[in-house]
Every structure is written in C-alpha cells, then in structure tokens.
Design goal:
By secondary structure, this protein is α+β, with helices and mostly antiparallel strands. About 50% of the residues lie in helices and about 20% in strands. The protein has 12 helices and 13 strands. It has helices at about 5-25, 45, 65-80, 110-115, 165-175, 210-225, 245-270, 270-295, 300-330, 335-365, 370-400, 415-420; strands spanning about 25-30, 30-35, 50-55, 85-90, 95-100, 125-130, 135, 140-150, 155-160, 180-185, 190, 205, 230-240. A 4-stranded antiparallel β-sheet has the order 4-5-3-13. A hairpin with a 4-residue loop joins strand 8 and strand 9. Helix 8 (about 270-295) packs antiparallel against helix 9, helix 9 (about 300-330) runs parallel beside helix 11 (about 370-400) and helix 10 (about 335-365) runs antiparallel to helix 11 (about 370-400). The longest helix is centred in the last third of the chain and has 33 residues, at about 335-365. The protein is elongated, with a radius of gyration of 28 Å.
C-alpha cells in the first residue's frame, strides 16, 4: 500500500471515530452497536442472581442422569448467550439445580425474577431442514447413546425415535437424501449430519465424531432435549459483587490514571513515536471494548487482567519499535531508512511475544471454564489487536507523518539533539 503524507490524518480521524463508537455506541434505527457502558460484568464485579431450578409437574424424583442432562441444558443456554461467569451445581438429594449468573448489561432495577426469565423454563430440541423448517422435536426422541462402530473403530451417536418420531424421521430422511439435517438446542446448532438414505426403522446413527468426548457431549445434549419434564425456578435472590460495591468505579479510575501516565511517558521519552503509540493504544483498547460489548461477552476480574496484560504487551511492542528506530537513527541512517529498518527489526520480537500469548489464550479457551474463559478471550483479542494497531496502524502513521517537512527533524523521534546532527 502506498502511504502519502496526509494518511496520518485519516488514520487519526478513524481512531477517534472508533473510540467514540466504543464509548457512546450507535443507536440509529436498525443499526445498533453496544458501547463500553453496555458491557456485561461478572458476578465478582457487579453481582448477579442465584436461582434454584427444579422439575415442573413431575410426580417423582428426577434421576441423576436427568439432572445431569438438565444441567447441560442450562450450560448450553448460558454458552449461547456468552455468559462465561456462572456456577451450575446439582443437588441430587433434593433433585434441584443451583445456578448463579451475572446481571444483564443495562440492568437497573436488579429484579431477580425478571433476570432469570433470560434462561427460560424449557429447552427445545429440534431437527430442521436446510431452510430452517422444524421436522422433528425432542419429545419424539426416546434414547441417545454413544457406541463404538466396530467396522471403523470410531465412536458414533445412536438415536431411537418413538412411533410418531419414526414416521416423521422417515419422511424427513426421504426428503433430505444427500442433504444435511440440522439438530438444534433452542437456537444453538449441535450437529448437522449428512443424510445418506431414507430411514424407516426409527433408529439413526450419527458418524464422523471428532472424538469420544465430542460424541458423549452431543449424545448428552440430545438426551437433555428429550427430558420428560421442564425446569422452573421457585426460589431466586440477588447476590452481591464479591469484590464489593464500588470496585468497578475504582478500577475504571485506576485504569484511566495508569493509561494517562503511560501516554505522558511515551510522549516525553519517544516524542513523535510516543504520539503514534498513544493513538495505537487508544485504537487497541477501543476495539477490545467493542469486542466485549457487541457479543456481550461477560467481563470478569480475570478478564480485566487479560486486558491489562494485552495492553502491557501493546506498550511493550511500541517501546521495542521506538527503540529500534532510535538505534537506526543513532548509527547515521536516514529518517526514512531508520523507520523502515526499525519496524522490520522489531517485528520478530513483537510477533514472538504476541504469538506465544495467543497460543496460551487458545489453550485456555479450549480447556478452561467459567471466568477463565473471560481472561483467555480478552488476552487473545488484545494480542491480535497488537499486531493490527501496534505494527500496521502505527507504521502507517509514522511513515505518513515523516513525509511532512515539519516532522522530518530526527530529534522528534526520541534521540538527543546532538545525536540528530
């Protein structure tokens, strides 16, 4: 891409716009972008709701297997809403499920009864065609189990339908030969197996399982959708933030002061390069906030730690780049050559540091649960943004500024006046 001397102005304007959107959001007819003020905070920061769910209209005690399936329903629903900070425990003695989850963003009256309506009472398992039409419902599934296919020595999920389900499944598979039939829990897609032929005996096999763990998880979710009862909450209450009231306000103030101090240091020590670094960091933080507010990812205290760590990596990247450019200037290279060479030499160090953190974040997202996912998400997003803002955007701004006569003094790039002669 050819960089001209006016491009820095466009980039700064773009960063300011992104920052304003992140802070104020957009609400204009059908276009709505949630702002930093709409972020959903975890129980540790803002508190939440505690609800006890139990079977509705069931004249016997639920079995352990049914309670495990009901727990899966709740986990699937919370996952689909990106509510990462939650606790779900089973009380087998009383046949109940205890759930704790954070308030919704924008919640003002803190009404527990209204908050738990977000989870609903029933889970609906459906089989749908490619157009989204419902063909079969979970009530028609009698059984879902995991078996090992001896011919291929791989796990498969077997389904058994009732009489009505057998008829509906035969019609569905006849209609969808050589197409996919999708299995949904509420609006969350669980699987889309390929239909090879019409099945009339009410028994189906889902193959191509990635692993035994995946097969078990899919089978349990299908069983959950076929529960003989729905869940209802008869007891709910508010829970206070574990960090105490006012903790969020203190953290925001501390973050603003820390960022201001970092910017002052960068401006005084690296001058023009520090100015560029400050805007690169503003872009990184703004997009990171949008990445939390738009999909409503729950932000917990570990999540804030992930943001702080990624901002620290962003500052580190800008320091490395600035020092490399200054080194090139000190050995007598031209300004243009120093900027080009400085960014080139700094790239490997910035790349290694961020790539390592991204790999760790991905591992945490795969194996972590609860608030740990919030940390992994903020860290991963922050490190990806480091590449975009710290390397790409700051390079465009620095080169564009250096093309203007008023910004071509070497002393503006952090080195001492005597070194710049």
């Amino acid at each position: 891409m050819r960089i001209n001397k006016n491009m820095y102005f466009i980039v700064i304007l773009l960063i300011i716009c992104v920052g304003l959107v992140a802070f104020f959001g957009i609400k204009a007819g059908p276009i709505q972008i949630k702002s930093i003020q709409d972020i959903r905070f975890g129980i540790d920061i803002r508190g939440g709701v505690e609800a006890i769910y139990e079977p509705k209209d069931l004249d016997r005690e639920p079995t352990d297997s049914e309670l495990e399936s009901a727990k899966l329903i709740m986990e699937t629903r919370l996952d689909s809403q990106n509510i990462l900070d939650r606790e779900i425990t089973i009380d087998k003695n009383n046949g109940q499920i205890l759930i704790r989850f954070p308030w919704k963003s924008g919640e003002a009256d803190f009404n527990p009864e209204e908050a738990i309506s977000e989870l609903g009472e029933t889970a609906k398992l459906t089989f749908r065609d490619p157009e989204g039409n419902i063909l079969i419902e979970g009530k028609d599934v009698i059984e879902s189990e995991v078996e090992i296919d001896k011919q291929i020595n791989r796990p498969v999920v077997t389904l058994v339908f009732n009489e009505e389900g057998t008829k509906l499944f035969a019609d569905a598979t006849e209609k969808l030969i050589d197409q996919r039939i999708s299995i949904y829990m509420d609006e969350t897609l669980l699987s889309s197996p390929f239909v090879k032929n019409k099945i009339t005996d009410g028994k189906s096999i889902i193959t191509n399982m990635e692993s035994m763990e995946y097969a078990v998880e899919l089978s349990d979710k299908i069983s959950a959708g076929a529960l003989p009862f729905s869940l209802i909450s008869k007891n709910h209450s508010s829970i206070s933030p574990t960090l105490g009231f006012g903790a969020l306000e203190v953290m925001v103030k501390a973050g603003i002061i820390a960022f201001a101090l970092v910017c002052v240091f960068m401006l005084v020590y690296y001058r023009l390069l520090g100015f560029v670094a400050c805007f690169a960091l503003i872009l990184q933080i703004s997009v990171q906030m949008l990445a939390l507010s738009i999909p409503q990812i729950t932000l917990t205290l570990p999540g804030i730690a992930g943001i702080i760590l990624s901002i620290g990596l962003g500052v580190d990247a800008n320091v490395i780049i600035s020092e490399r450019v200054m080194e090139e200037l000190r050995i007598g290279k031209t300004l243009d050559g120093s900027i080009e060479s400085g960014y080139k030499k700094a790239f490997s160090a910035v790349f290694d540091g961020n790539l390592t953190s991204i790999v760790i974040a991905i591992i945490l997202m795969i194996f972590g649960t609860g608030s740990m996912l919030s940390f992994a998400y903020t860290l991963m997003v922050g490190c990806v943004l480091n590449f975009i803002s710290g390397v790409v955007i700051s390079r465009i701004m620095t080169i564009s500024l250096s093309l203007n006569k008023v910004f071509r003094k070497k002393s503006l790039y952090g080195i001492k006046y005597k070194e710049a002669i």
